[in-house]
Amino acid sequence: MTQDLGSVADSGTSHYVDLPAGRFHYRRWAPEVPAPSAVLVHGNGGTWATWARVGAALGAAGMDVLAVDLRGSGASVRPPAGSYGLREVAGDLDDFLRALRVHAPLLIGHCWGGAAALALATGAVADRVPPVLSGLVLEELPPDMAATATQPVVRDFLRMMRSSPEYVAKWVDLVCRDWHPVDRESLLEELRGADVQVYLSAIDEGAAAGPLLPLLARVKVPALVLRGDPRRGGMLSDADWQLARECLPGHCVAGELPGSGHELHRGDFAGFMRLVRELLATVA
Amino acid sequence: MADDQIVSDLLVFIRTQFLDGDPAGELTDQTPLLAWGVLDSFKTARLVGFIHDELGSQIPPDQLNASNFQDVRSIAELVRSNGGQAKAAQ
Asked: Which domains does chain A have, with CATH numbers?
């Protein structure tokens, strides 16, 4: 399931879909024959590109993979501040699945995207009947969106969004020197394209949803909940993690990747894919 | 003297933030931080933030590279040459 990508642009193909909120961009890795689907949902400040290697790997494994740019992100519609609550974002995801007739996907979300995926899967925030899912992967689900505001990785992201392109490029090369070049490239793209106002709106308005970890108790499909090492930038403290594991139903698993911080799928791609494969085996 | 104070500030920061206080007293200004894995991705970002926010050093992009983060001595020189000051001197 590993791919030797030369650059982000080599991964998947771009498409657009018109949803009630506007036009959304997504990247797709489509097999030639019908296949189980996976939908990848990036974190705050990110785009589909964060999944460049994950999407390619899942596609190579025979899945029909779609990675959406959430509202205000990448090449998707950018509504004004005031419309970045989890209700709206989860609603977009629901509309996305319906518009493209994606049936029973494995839904994989990172941070903000994980919060939206959880809101959608449980129907707790979106006020919609949850779509049929085959499974759920929640990577670095924040305890609540408000809690992200004080995280060091968020302060770094804001600092880089406000820095010169030259500085950001050197910072990524230095700080993420152990990452795969494609993952460094995708982070650089995200930092250069992110909208500070949207980024802050997603935090402020997402906070209205309140604590997210108790929602885990309402997950009905097989799920993998992953956290990064809090000493390396992971967002869940040991107390948060204990609560998450207590809330998780018995058909779900909690996983950690030693040494990885907030960006498990880029910081430890092989470990992340191993755990996803293990979940897929149970889903199949 | 200024350099010594910057070195001291850096050592205190790294010991307290990254090494649980360094109870064995192993960290020196010549400890190879990158080679020994003291500075992983997250900690490098924390250190760059500390240099910017607490020591007031504006590092130009072309100096933001691994060779300048080899050890505390090289980082202190980077800080000093880019307008940084020890915390006590601010």
From this structure: 8-283 (3.40.50.1820)
